[in-house]
Amino acid sequence: MSKARSIPVSYLRPSYDVCVVGVETTIDIYRSIPRRADSFDVRGTSSLEVTIVYNPRAVSRPQKGEKWPLNKEIRVVVSPLKASAELNDSKVRVSYYASQGKEALGSSMLYLTNVGESVCLDVDIFRIGSVTRGVRGKEVWSWGRGGKGAILLVNCDRDRNTSGITDREDTGPPNAADVKDMSPMILTAEGPDEIFDDYKLLMKVSSSDAKRLRVYQKRRYEYIQVLGTHMHSYEVKRNNLDEITFYVEGLEFPDIDFSGLVYIDLLFQRGDDGSKILTEQVVFRVAPWIMTPNTQKPLEVYVCNVKTNAEFVKLLSNFVEKTRCPLTMVTQSENRGDQWIQDEMEFGYTEAPHKQFPVVLDSPRNRGLKNFPVSEVLGPDFGYVTREPDDSSTVNTLDSFGNLEVSPPVVVHGKAYPLGRILIGDGLNKSSMRMNQVLRDFLHAQQVQAPVLLFSTWLYVGHIDEFMSFVPAPNRKGFRLLLASPQACLDLFRKKQKEGHGDAVMFEGLDKVKYTINDILSSKILMDSSKLCQESIDLNRKIMKKDLGLSEEDIIDIPMLYKCDSDMENAESFFPNMVNMLVLGKQLGIPKPFGPKIYGRCCLEEKVRSLLEPLGLVCTFLDDYSSYHQYLGEVHCGTNVVRKPFSFKWWECII
């Protein structure tokens, strides 16, 4: 609301001004005083509350029949009680007296027009999906349950056109569907129509905020932009309307140089000298981009059709059918031979109280699937965002989104992360390789899923989905962390060797060199690789226990072996990596490991079933060897999933 104003009055001529209902205004009774006057009396009409404010240590309240002394420790404050029906229909009379005088030496008359208390901008301050009227404190935004402050969506879907750009990039007028993505804002200006002939209503935004929002007003059959981009100020033409609805569009997600807060100012001022009668400010927070973990319900599965994976796609189709989840096949003309759809994009969503829609984050890897997120995913109520470094030569394998995961909701040392925490593979000072700064800055700036760095550069491909995954579980936390474990695999093989199955063969049925359990356990390179890789996984285990608040009971070790190069670096999966799975509710699509068969059954599959099926999970092993594994990826790398957003509202987070 406005800062306190002071209106000067004169006994020589009447004064005219405007006040706002519910806003206190000081009357300057000392500017013009009749000669010999040393006391005063003040009266106001019933539409005004007139108050004498004084310092009791310097001034004594007059007795009945006495006047107030003219002492600058005394102030006259007027607060209008209701809006004027006519121009100048509220009056204040200040009468001046000499000592012991009963007749006034002169009087000052102030004629006021009271503009309604609701000369203001109103927004959805309580986050209920509709504008709340006449509430103060709209200039402050607070987190948590019971927090206040309006929310703005980045208008990053495509309702306006079919030209391959988002609505935020389109400078044309919005249509009715597009306006539904925007946040309503109502300007109310009650009072006699004549007052708005001499006084202006202005809305303003700063130059920095003008780049991050646009404001529209409906006129006849179209929506006209009035603020944003190059428009920093707008004089509202009231046209005898008490209420005018505007629509506010977000243009940018929070980022390293943008906290997410944008402000719109309302000024009610005189037209001749620009003196302000009222100023008010509303704040919006731009909604963040939010990732969804494996444990959220699947809504749609994506896979690429390429020349080498026809048999896998058949297996996947049968598996996905069990979940009654639609499967979208990305054609070869759309994927241009690039089957790694997990690496190309990450599905998330954005949400305001009035609207929610999925948003795909496009990676800067820019291979065959480069155009797919824009050409095929972006659309009505399906948004798009990307972050790319200025120098494309700096893009590396860690910028692919097999290296980007998010945990289910966790509590860490008493602090809740109800939307989970983003997990990013990194060199952790053991390697100079990192995810690009622009991506990391973007992910940190969303605030609600505070990222955690893991160590992934020990792997040849370097993605965290090569050693971890989350699955739903009926425990208190609602999930388990699956970690690849060379130690668990060697322990299993040693057990089988002791039971007399050392000659059991791996990779049976594949056109590949076969290994017995004895061969594996006697291989120096596999033993050395296992030791080094287990150390790297144990480091990640320690990080996740600390930063996700996990205990050993929350972690399940999945048997896995990796093979390093001759320098004991750049680890690759020795057999299809079972943690690199597709999680669709309780249905798990797991890479078929082709482990040693004992009594006709793969001992690796049997071990994993024994670990996961007691949790109510259903394990389906999919043969991805020739289609993905031999190209250094697995089921998770070759699929992607749109998942149901969290029921928890991000603005209720405690940041």
CATH superfamily of the largest domain: L-arginine/glycine Amidinotransferase, Chain A
**Strand percentage:** 25-35%
CATH class of the largest domain equals Alpha Beta
What is the name of the CATH topology of the largest domain?
Answer: L-arginine/glycine Amidinotransferase, Chain A
Distance between the termini: 27 Å
Q: Rounded to an integer, what's the Rg over CA atoms?
A: 34 Å
Can you put this structure into words, describing what you see?
By secondary structure, this protein is α+β, with helices and mostly antiparallel strands. The protein has 3 domains: 5-115, Sandwich (Immunoglobulin-like); 120-286, Protein-arginine deiminase, central domain (Immunoglobulin-like); 290-652, 5-stranded Propeller (L-arginine/glycine Amidinotransferase, Chain A). Helices cover 15% and strands 33% of the residues. The chain has 12 helices and 43 strands. A 5-stranded mixed beta sheet has the order 2-9-8-4-6, with no helix packed on it. The mean pLDDT is 94.
Keywords:
alpha+beta; five-stranded mixed β-sheet; Immunoglobulin-like; 655 residues; 43 strands; L-arginine/glycine Amidinotransferase, Chain A; 12 helices
